[in-house]
Request: fold
Amino acid sequence: MLSFTPITVEHGEFLRRYYENCDYGLCEYSVGTKLMWGEHLHPAFAEAGGCLIVRNETEGRVMFDYPVPGPEGDEDAALSAMEDWCMETGVPPVISVVPEGKAPRLLQRYPYAAVRNVRTWQDYLYKTEDLQNFTGRRYSGQRNHIKKFRNSCPDAVFRPLTAADKPLIDRFWADYGGEFAKGDDPRAVGELKLARQTVEQLDRPWFFCGGMLNGNKLIALALAERCGNTLIIHIEKALYSYVGVYPAMVQAFAQHFGGDAVWINREDDAADLGLRTSKLQYGPDHLAPKYHFSPQNELLYHVKAIPELKTERLTLSELTEEDIPAYNALVLDGDRNRWWGYDDVAGLGGPVTERSFYEVAQRDFHNCVAVNFAVRLEGKLIGEAVLYRFNYRGDAELGCRIAKEYEGWGYGTEAFAAAANWGLYGVHLTRVVAKCFRENEASRKMLSSCMRPNGEDETYYYFEKLV
Reply:
């Protein structure tokens, strides 16, 4: 299973191996965003399939970035590793800030998914040459502002900033604080704090930092990072008392650091009216979508209640209060359940009570995690069939156990076949899978009679049944 490591500044060089050539074009796929917003996103990383996997956690919700492949990266393998981690931990596999070019892959992968694309998340992308030149009628306002700035500050110059410029930068923040007009806005105050902390890392090789100086006074600064063909602007600040300094700095920064970048990403507007107005005035080429995928399994759509299934001799139906004694005896039969592959007692995570296992089954169905069928002979519970491990891609696993006193009569095969068919045609799954220990010859024969083999390893034989 994936093992995640919290992202710190020390991991910047490692992350850049993936982000340096990443052409997703979104600000989230950068070291700067992970570090600047680390207190809010709590990002952690892992690797699988030659891809970078980032898990974020905010307000108690876990969300993944779309995997970033390396030179030999396998995105499908990375997505499968994410899904496996989610199934093992009970966390929904939510994938957020998905770039537009990757959305079709996820739409094809997940038969059922809630998809969002919120306007305030979208990044503003500009053609680099547009911000370098400000040509055309739509940029007449920026050119006029720059002209006013040059008239009032004819000797102002733009140059790169390094760690040696710390005294200049510290003075700039003091001056900026004196002009800061959003001191009563907690979000703006928090963003300013994070911006200052991030600028302290300007000596890191993946950052570009530059500023506009009027004499010996720093009056504007910006910090950016190149990812693929996009220059991502993480920070832009200027003293508004210097009329026109903002567009002058935007243009000078693009000219100095734009290079052969195709795009300049000035990030989202955080639902701030002023920011939105400003970013639109600079004529973005487009707003880059960020899709939010919440894959869901078929139970949510097709199963409102556990049905009753009839076979030649058996009935499969929902567990009831009256089943609790027989169900507990089935679950607690250690000798019988050595082949079950799951420790029901350990899975409780607490002391066993009379209702423990019954309540787990009820809760799992309510949460669309599993369907527990009571297998009944003449109304009496003699076993259990469980459809579980929904992988959000149309697959689920099926298990069946029959009480010892009823073995040898084919009841397991009969119940298993009925539950598998219901999974395929009642739940609308694409595939039902199962496994058994190599030593369990009886289960192997039973599974072989109603499913087809699908491989083996040192521990299990695997089987599947398709639509």
Summary: The chain has three domains: 5-121, 123-267, 299-466.
